[in-house]
Amino acid sequence: MTAHAYLTTREAADYLRLKERKLYDLVRQELVPCTRVTGKLLFPRQALDLWLMNHLEGDQRSREPLAAILAGSQDPLLEWAVRESGSQLATLCHGSGDGVRRLLAGQALVAGVHLLDPDSGRYNDPLALGLGGMRDLVAIRWARRRQGLMLAPGNPLDIAGLADLARPQVVLAHRQPDAGAERLLSLLLARAGMRLEALDLSPNVALSEDDLALAVRRGDADAGLGVEAAARRHGLDFIGLHDECFDLLLRRRSYFEAPLQRLMRFAHDPRCRDWAARAGGYDLGELGEVVYNA
């Protein structure tokens, strides 16, 4: 028989070898992961497993707490959910590579990352990111997102795909070298027999999805690679090119901090899925799944 992904209160109490009253106390103190659906408490089995492993590692309270900072790549849905959930996470989104560095240095509670390894074709591989030494690293799937070309409203230059970026009059907005979008752009261009350095690049580097979209909207550039949701909210045309994985990387103990628990509970609220559907370019079928557990 296939194990259910979500447990009822009675099932969770049996699973954890706790009395239901004790489990309710832990929920009230926001110490155990759970979600509420139509007034009923449900407990994600994967999250309970993480909770158990965390307690087997000993008393985590003795460790120095990390600042409640979400670093890494900007994602429109995640940005909105951080605010709406009341998570009290501060955002410092300067690209996936920056997020990985801050997580490794203990300067962030969580990092949003979408880095494709060109050799393996895998997204957010801890070994490829230099995070293999983090023995308590966890990756939580946030979403699958559609990446593509952001274009000026009405697509006045009739850009139909990557090949058109090589035309002399086309100026391309671009991101910092270790941003996930820039790594993907270089890979897509290479597959098309093109090189990023040979294109007419805008003079200023866009540090986020919004910065890139605004550069196209203002006319500082004619095109740029970004997510569909950012293109739509800035009123830009969009040509989809690639579907990617966007994950949250964090230390296991961080998953049980109140800011992360508030965010992940809200992620299963119907409002979150409604927002994603209106924004466009999101697949939330795996949201909340543990895709890596060191």
TrEMBL record:
InterPro entries: HTH_17, PBP_domain, SinI_DNA-bd. Residues 83-267 form the PBP domain. Keywords: DNA-binding. GO terms for molecular function: DNA binding. The keyword DNA-binding applies. It comes from the Bacteria. Residues 6-54 form the Helix-turn-helix domain. NCBIfam families: excise (TIGR01764). This is DNA-binding protein. It comes from Halomonas salipaludis.
